Amino acid sequence: MSPDKDDIQYLALSLKLGTPLWSNDNRLKQQLRVKIVSTKELIEILK
Hints:
Layout: H1 8-17, E1 21-22, E2 36-37, H2 39-46
Parallel strand pairs: 1-2
């Protein structure tokens, strides 16, 4: 699920909490189980 083993705990927490994950790692967006939000997207959400 995670292209980088260092991201596993963050993906697991997002799955557990049912929340998106804030990351600019485009490889994470390739998985479909957790919504990944980039900094640009987060700024738009918070406006």
